[in-house]
Each structure stands twice: as structure tokens, then as C-alpha cells.
Design goal:
This protein is an alpha/beta fold. Strands 1, 2, 3, 4, 5, 6 and 7 form a 7-stranded mixed β-sheet that branches. α5 packs parallel to α7.
């Protein structure tokens, strides 16, 4: 499939929709056999990262209802926007099919994001009852990368960690909206600006 540079904010490719509901309780024996568990624990390394962002009904990961997830892979110096995954969730529909698609898309790849603890915390609450484990993926918080760079600069001043401010300061394109996809793409661009791949 074609790939696009980190400056690209053009949406293309298929958008997948899927519903949401609290996960169905499963027995311990079934949890150990869930195929998505093997994907998360695979030792194979693709060298890719996955930028991810969630939208929910609140900012409390312990109680919020998931409404949408956007994920896109980062390979080398490129964000693969043509291979993005966008899922919608609804309270009256089962979440397992959509979550299985998300886990297959993520696999064991490191996760990149802004406010990533919230995203992973919300997903863990839904995924763990389904597959028996929380997401074991490495986490890369782009605001922490940005803060680390600013903290090394001479002088003492407050660091603006708002995502749009980070984009402006790094001379990156602004978010093309405030949805999950726009935020995931923005996080991917920040990551590549701050942690460019080694040649």
C-alpha cells in the first residue's frame, strides 16, 4: 500500500466502524485460549510503532464509556495513513469484534500517543476481561518526549504541553480537527520530529 510523509494530513483508505458494549465475562480457561492474547505477547519485532488515541464520554478512564479509537502505524520515517484503523463504539452493541480488530492491528507494537495513560487505561478496562491481560505494549508519551527536550534548554520557564502548542512549537501542521484520528496523527508527527528513526 502507498505510504505518506509525516507532514501529510490527508485522510485516505477505508474507515472501519464497529460498536461498543461492556465486554462479556469469560471463564479463566477461555481467557487463556484467546487468540488476541498471543498477538500481544508475540516476540516478533516489526520495527513499527502505532499511534493511538481514544475519545470517550469523560476523562476518567475508570468510568468513561469508549466512543471511538483511531490507530495508525509508523514505519521508519513515515506515518502509514492509508493503513489507519478508525473504530466507533455504541453502548447497545458488543465491543468484542471491534476490540479484536484493534488488538490485531496493534499486535505487540509500541504505542505512541498524547495523554496515552488515559487511552491505555480505558482500553485495559475493556481488553483485560476479554483476553485475560492488560495491554503489555511499550508506551511512548509524546508530551514527555517534548518536555524532556525543553527541560534541557537553558533558562527556566513553564513548558506548554498542550498538543496544539507542541505542534506549533515544532513547526508541524495543525490538527485537522479534534477527533481521535486527528489527535493520533498529530502524536505520530510529534514522535517522528522528536525521535527520528536512525539511518
Amino acid at each position: 500500500m502507498p505510504t505518506e510523509t509525516i507532514a501529510s494530513v490527508v485522510a485516505n483508505g477505508a474507515v472501519a466502524a464497529a460498536p461498543f458494549a461492556p465486554p462479556v465475562a469469560e471463564t479463566v480457561s477461555l481467557l487463556g485460549e484467546h487468540p488476541d492474547r498471543a498477538l500481544l505477547r508475540s516476540g516478533e519485532e516489526s520495527g513499527e510503532r502505532v499511534a493511538i488515541h481514544c475519545e470517550a464520554t469523560s476523562f476518567d478512564a475508570a468510568t468513561a464509556d469508549l466512543r471511538s479509537v483511531a490507530a495508525l502505524r509508523i514505519r521508519g520515517s513515515r506515518v502509514l495513513t492509508s493503513q489507519r484503523l478508525i473504530l466507533s463504539f455504541w453502548p447497545t452493541e458488543p465491543a468484542e469484534p471491534a476490540l479484536s480488530r484493534l488488538l490485531a492491528f496493534i499486535g505487540n507494537r509500541p504505542l505512541v500517543g498524547y495523554y496515552l495513560d488515559f487511552t491505555v487505561g480505558l482500553l485495559d478496562r475493556l481488553v483485560q476481561p476479554m483476553v485475560g491481560i492488560a495491554l503489555p505494549n511499550q508506551r511512548i508519551e509524546v508530551s514527555s518526549l517534548y518536555y524532556g527536550r525543553k527541560a534541557k534548554a537553558p533558562g527556566k520557564y513553564a513548558v506548554d504541553l498542550r498538543l496544539d502548542s507542541i505542534l506549533r512549537d515544532l513547526d508541524l501542521p495543525p490538527r485537522a480537527g479534534e477527533d481521535a484520528y486527528a489527535s493520533a496523527l498529530a502524536a505520530a508527527m510529534v514522535y517522528l520530529r522528536l525521535e527520528p528513526p536512525r539511518p
